[in-house]
């Protein structure tokens, strides 16, 4: 198996719909017109996925963490470039499995492969690294930036929070769950759902948005800091799945458990702000996008992000989320 | 040192000229209009650079291997996205050194940072991986594709071949060189020169082009295969530096030495084809671009690439170049 056979036989079919990709037979691709929303995220074995995760799920996670960035901007995905750094001695079957994952989500999200690079570690212990650069079309109303929230804005989040983090704990056997809960939590870790429909639906009136990857509190802090504000989150209003709710109920300290849920990360939900005059618009957008949206707090003068208990007192949070340079 | 401080303090200044980069304070960047030529290459410690190479040189090599792809297409570089996967426990000084390298070549090649991702291995032995996605403006005459050579076309290469491979041998102490030769060869390994001027100058009449990264013979094979032809290279006409010429002269078997030079890779010169009626245009373009261009062979009916001795007999070549999945 050689690099060039793999590109021709395994990856080129994924570029069949992209005219400017030259069937992956060139050093570069030609993409038409713009403007584009572009984003580039890397995922690393042992950091963003488990080294033994099946490669089709890894490929789909790579796509989805990038698509999630486009979703937060309200952009419609178009296509992507891919760079793979495989472990030394990777088998063709593993690369084919990865490509099957890409193919499945290409169909689901209507994107094409434009080009990229595939290589392998020479060092035996080198962990797999995958990066993608995604291109999207900005929404007609203009992209929802991270900056733009106003004091007094409501703070919303899509879907549920905490499942992916609990899924990782389940996969690592750090926590016990029922078989059904484990399966659903693990799936949320492996396959986040990029919130493209709701991201596009709120583009007209959301004042700022970010996708939740580092943890709800950490990303609320990023959102707040971008606009020189403070994000206050009501802990009890954070949306949870049945499985996560059951886990919280099993913990001795309920507030600590809620703080954990809000710190795990990997949720890939959209956290956004909107003026309180727009509550009806949020409800309509959520319905149109068939996506749950929860109002979880508000933006105030101040700095950073705080998790509040039912009496409005700040809950201590051990970690403000995952910092990839600290590990 | 945290991920977000590093982005704000070290990388954000590199994006100061790019309006749509939002000062790297967003999940995505907005880029205007198009069309774009896009390319994405990864470099890996232990594969594409030496683990002890200074990070400013690594950063500049990352930029240059990508810029070289744009050069082969005749495109004018505009900007790039960056993803860094650092070794566990990376020091802030190392990241700053990397950013200084980026900054230096951003000035030289007039490109801006649009955005990206920075993360680190959790596994102690994880080799550093860097990938960049470069955006270029296609030349008015249209991009020079890899496909398009005609039987009878001349085959040309820019600059000199073999220096980078010998530089790597010098750095690894596999071969001895004079101090002066070692320095110049090592610099060619660390800092390839993307041939942007000549790439743009030939865009009107070159029928096909590729940059030489896997080795002259291997990449001639890729160029030939794209058009269903055979590339024939006259070994003695391959341009060599004084240092590489001296190395060839020291080898017992001259033809084997020439085959080695044509197989090392990492040259990042442009290999291109043009009709023989265009020889004068090639000369004019070379002069305008202040770049040496050598005619080294021609395209014929057949398949693959062959290195010929002065009597037109094929020279045996051990390896057809570097295959990144075989190592």
Question: What would CATH call the architecture of the largest domain in chain A?
Answer: Alpha-Beta Complex
CATH class descriptor name of the largest domain in chain A:
Alpha Beta
| Number of helical segments with 4 or more residues of chain A | 10
Show the largest interface.
A-B, 74 and 74 residues
CATH domain fold name of the largest domain in chain A: Phosphoribosyl-aminoimidazole Synthetase, Chain A, domain 2
What does this protein structure show overall?
With 327 residues, the first copy, chain A, is α+β, with helices and mostly antiparallel strands. Chain A folds into two domains: 3-137, PurM-like, N-terminal domain (60s Ribosomal Protein L30, Chain: A, 2-Layer Sandwich); 154-308, Phosphoribosyl-aminoimidazole Synthetase, Chain A, domain 2. Chain A is built from ten helices and eleven strands. In chain A, the strands form two sheets. In chain A, strands 7-9-6-10-8-11 form a six-stranded mixed sheet. In chain A, strand 3, helix 3 and strand 4 form a beta-alpha-beta unit. The longest helix of chain A has 19 residues, at 55-73. Chain A is globular, with a radius of gyration of 20 Å. The mean pLDDT of chain A is 94. Strand 1 (29-31) of chain A pairs antiparallel with strand 2 (36-44) of chain B.
In short:
The structure is a homodimer of 327-residue chains. The first copy, chain A, is an alpha+beta fold and 327 residues long.
Which secondary structure elements does this structure contain, and how are they paired or packed?
The structure is a homodimer of 327-residue chains.
Chain A: H1 3-11, E1 29-31, E2 36-44, H2 55-73, E3 76-86, H3 92-109, E4 112-120, E5 129-137, E6 154-158, H4 163-171, H5 179-190, H6 196-201, E7 208-211, H7 216-226, E8 230-234, H8 242-250, H9 254-261, E9 270-274, H10 279-288, E10 293-300, E11 304-308
Parallel strand pairs in A: 3-4, 8-11
Antiparallel strand pairs in A: 2-5, 3-5, 6-9, 6-10, 7-9, 8-10
Helix pairs in contact in A: 2-3, 4-5, 8-9
């Amino acid at each position: 198996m050689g690099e060039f056979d793999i590109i021709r036989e395994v990856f080129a079919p994924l570029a069949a719909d992209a005219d400017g990709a030259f069937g992956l037979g060139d050093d570069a691709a030609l993409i038409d017109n713009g403007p584009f929303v572009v984003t580039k995220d890397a995922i690393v074995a042992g950091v963003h996925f488990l080294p033994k995760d099946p490669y089709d799920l890894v490929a789909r996670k790579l796509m989805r963490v990038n698509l999630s960035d486009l979703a937060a901007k309200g952009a419609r995905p178009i296509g992507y470039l891919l760079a793979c750094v495989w472990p030394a001695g990777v088998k063709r079957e593993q690369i084919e499995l990865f490509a099957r994952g890409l193919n499945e989500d290409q169909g689901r999200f209507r994107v094409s492969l434009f080009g990229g690079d595939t290589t392998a570690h020479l060092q035996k212990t080198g962990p797999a690294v995958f990066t993608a650069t995604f291109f999207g079309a900005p929404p007609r109303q203009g992209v929802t930036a991270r900056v733009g929230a106003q004091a007094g804005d409501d703070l919303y989040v899509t879907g549920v929070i905490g499942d992916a983090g609990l899924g990782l704990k389940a996969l690592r056997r750090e926590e016990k769950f029922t078989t059904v809960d484990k399966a659903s939590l693990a799936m949320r870790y492996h396959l986040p759902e990029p919130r493209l429909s709701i991201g596009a639906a709120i583009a007209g009136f959301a004042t700022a948005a970010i996708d939740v990857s580092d943890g709800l509190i950490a990303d609320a802090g990023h959102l707040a800091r971008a606009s020189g504000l403070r994000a206050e989150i009501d802990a009890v209003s954070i949306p949870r799945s049945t499985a996560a709710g059951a886990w919280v109920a099993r913990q001795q300290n309920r507030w600590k458990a809620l703080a954990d849920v809000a710190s795990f990360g990997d949720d890939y939900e959209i956290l956004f702000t909107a003026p309180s005059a727009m509550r009806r618009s949020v409800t309509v957008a959520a319905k149109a996008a068939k996506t749950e949206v929860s109002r979880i707090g508000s933006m105030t003068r101040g700095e950073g992000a705080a998790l509040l208990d039912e009496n409005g007192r700040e809950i201590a949070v051990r970690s403000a989320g995952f910092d990839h340079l600290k590990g």
